[in-house]
Amino acid sequence: SSPDSDGCPPELEKAGLLNKTKIAEGGRKLRKNWCSSWVVLVGNSLVFYKDPKSQSPSSWKPGSSRPESSVDLRGAQLHWANELSSKKNVFKLRTVTGNEFLLQSETDSLIREWYNTIKNVIDRLDRE
Ligand code: I3P
Question: In terms of DSSP bridges, do strands 77-80 and 12-25 run parallel, antiparallel, or are they unpaired?
């Protein structure tokens, strides 16, 4: 994203591999398609990249790979959503535009860290 008013690029808060599926687009329900995704939280956005492991080594260069999609966290809602999946450790992220994602990890501590970090960003933006 673009530099802030102080001229500094937004800080990278967190990055890692999570399982992801989009379940709604603009409020319209979608069929689940779980994929492993490289997720980066930077500034006010959650940015999704293809899992580098699913790409050929030659096609993936750090820094030059294009995001698949990105989510604006301003006004977003975050909820644990284990009832929405047969998988464990699932939370749902809903954007103001009505896009909904499920994110999941087999590792309890990891998913809790992601939940808390995203929640902190959403809460900070709510107070602005
Ligand atoms: C879906 C697939 C998903 C599953 C989903 C199934 O079937 O098995 O993994 O979600 O369950 O419908 P398909 O591949 O035929 O689309 P979970 O893994 O999150 O349970 P759901 O329809 O109950 O959401």
Answer: unpaired
Instruction: Specify the ligand 1 atom closest to the Cα of 34.
Output: 9
Q: Is 43 left (phi over 0), alpha (psi -120 to 50) or beta?
A: left
Counted residue by residue, the chain has a size of 128
Q: Which 8-state DSSP code applies to residue 32?
A: -
- Cβ 33 under 6 angstroms from ligand 1: no
Q: Is the CB of 86 under 6 A from ligand 1?
A: yes
CA 77/CA 80 separation, integer angstroms: 10
pLDDT, position 70: 94
pLDDT at res. 17? 96
Cα–Cα distance between 47 and 38 in angstroms, integer?
8
Per the CB < 8 A criterion, the answer to whether 102 and 20 are in contact is yes
How far is it, in rounded angstroms, from Cα 127 to Cα 26?
Answer: 25
Contacts of 7 (CB under 8 A, 6+ apart): none
Q: 63 pLDDT exceeds 60? A: no
- Whose tokens are 């492991």? That residue is 53
